[in-house]
Automatic annotation (TrEMBL):
Transmembrane segments: none annotated. Zn(2+) 1 binds at H59, H61, D151, D304. GO terms for biological process: 'de novo' UMP biosynthetic process; purine nucleobase catabolic process. Its EC number is 3.5.2.3. InterPro entries: DHOase, DHOase/Allantoinase_Hydrolase, DHOase_cat, Dihydroorotase_CS, Metal-dep_hydrolase_composite, Metal_Hydrolase. Keywords: Hydrolase, Metal-binding, Pyrimidine biosynthesis, Zinc. This is Dihydroorotase. PROSITE patterns: DIHYDROOROTASE_1, DIHYDROOROTASE_2. It comes from the Bacteria.
Length: 428
């Protein structure tokens, strides 16, 4: 079906709002302008909405195969559509791990059958993410891998990472890294700092992340590989990435909404909805992440949507799994707490969720340019609602943001010109 979106607000290059119509034809953005005449399209009044490119989330966990009780490609991508995300990249810490071309082909088949938005799956760097034997990078690329990562665990050995970067560079593919040096961690569920001191428990030190990033940017320099840092969380890590960029190293970095919104001082108790990896760091780290985003050291925002079953999260702080969900609350939380408070501009926030991740990975999405895939969302910046996990389409209800009041809720999501989700209201 072709659509004519009438009178929506779009953001211009310089961040101003402009009333515009958008004609969607054959899955593409065909025309953007004012007073466009209807040529037989289904007309949708976008009058009271902000219209932006669909968001990209290049760090999520879909749990399929092997963890279908936590999430599936079906439920996770429906949650993505509800959150305004039209392209997502799921991590390979599934059972089995997509570490062979055959497994990658199977994954693409499942995506084709069940996904509601565009899915770009990662392959692992090492077989079974065990950190030893490298996967078949060329074969995995041919089978449709988006990039390589062992997310969930850091690559512990420098020589393995070095060889991985050489091979990734030869394939013009990125190495995407969960940075964590296990030799510097002695258990722990929360950041080693004020919170763990108060509770007399061991913590996860900042140094385990920044040390590995420092190692890896030097490996990236020596191999000319595109190296991407997942969920950056400490002030030292931000400094290392800033210096690496200054030195001309091909490094990019992402930050999650929760690391921007919270620090360890905000954790009320040994609550597992505040347990994620990397952990919520100190106040100075949170400040450095915001500054890093604003000065371009950090390239974009990704949710690290990590759904877990309620029984698993109820196991107590020491044994509950790390991770919180993020797809359905990211934009409203960031809009309400940063844009409405004047810390980010609306244009900055939208760019960090659209064109910035797209450009970092040379993807043709995240834009309303003529000829682009019609990945478009409508956002309601006025209506205020309270976050209620019972309303999530994700199977995961594990969030620390229950009862937060937010504006900026998506109301409709188009992927390749098809309406994949709407809140009902204006579109029934
Ligand atoms: N980010 C998280 O807290 N959890 C991730 C894996 C991980 O990165 O540890 C998960 O898969 O649940
Ligand atoms: Zn991770």
């Amino acid at each position: 079906m072709n659509y004519l979106l009438k009178n929506g607000m779009i953001l211009t290059e310089n961040g101003e709002m402009q009333k515009s119509d958008i004609r969607i034809k054959s899955g593409k953005i065909y025309e953007v302008g004012t007073h466009l005449e209807n040529h037989g399209e289904k007309e949708i009044s976008a009058d009271s909405y902000l219209v932006t490119p669909g968001f990209l989330d290049l760090h999520i966990h879909l749990r399929e195969p092997g963890g279908e009780h936590k999430e599936t490609i079906d439920t996770g991508t429906l949650a993505a559509a509800k959150g305004g995300f039209t392209t997502v990249a799921p991590m390979p810490n599934t059972k089995p791990v997509p570490d062979t071309p055959e497994q990658m082909e199977w994954l693409h088949k499942r995506i084709k059958e069940t996904a509601h938005v565009r899915v770009l799956p990662y392959a692992s760097i090492t077989m079974n993410q065990a950190g030893d034997e490298l996967t078949d990078f060329a074969g995995l690329k041919r089978a449709g891998a988006f990039a390589f990562t062992d997310d969930g665990v850091g690559v512990q050995t420098a020589s393995v990472m070095h060889e991985a970067m050489k091979r990734a560079a030869a394939q013009d593919m990125a190495i995407v890294a969960h940075c964590e040096d296990n030799s510097l961690i002695y258990g722990g569920a929360y950041h080693e700092g004020e919170f763990t001191k108060k509770h007399g428990i061991s913590g996860i030190p900042s140094i385990c992340e920044s040390v590995q990033i420092a190692r890896d940017v030097l490996l990236a320099e020596s191999t000319n590989c595109h190296y991407h840092v997942c969920h950056i969380s400490t002030k030292e890590s931000v400094r290392v990435v800033r210096e690496a960029k200054k030195a001309g190293i091909k490094v990019t970095a992402e930050v999650t909404p929760h690391h921007l919104l919270l620090c360890d001082e905000d954790i009320p108790s040994l609550d597992t909805n505040y347990k994620m990896n990397p952990p919520l760091r100190g106040k100075a780290d949170q400040k450095a992440l915001i500054e890093g985003l604003l000065d371009g050291t950090i390239d974009f925002i990704a949710t690290d949507h990590a759904p877990h079953a309620a029984e698993e999260k109820a196991k107590g702080y020491a044994s509950a799994p790390f991770g919180i969900v993020g797809l359905e609350t990211a934009f409203p939380l960031l809009y309400t707490n940063f844009v409405e408070k004047g810390i980010f501009t609306l244009k900055q926030l939208v760019d960090w969720l659209t064109i910035k991740p797209a450009e970092s990975f040379k993807l043709p999405y995240g834009t309303l340019k003529i000829g682009a895939s019609a990945d478009i969302i409508l956002l309601d910046l006025q209506n205020e609602k309270t976050i209620d996990p019972a309303q999530f389409l994700s199977k995961g209800k594990n969030t620390p943001f229950t009862n937060w009041n937010c504006k900026g809720w998506p109301v409709a999501t188009f992927v390749d010109g098809e309406l994949k989700w709407s809140d009902g209201g204006a579109f029934e």
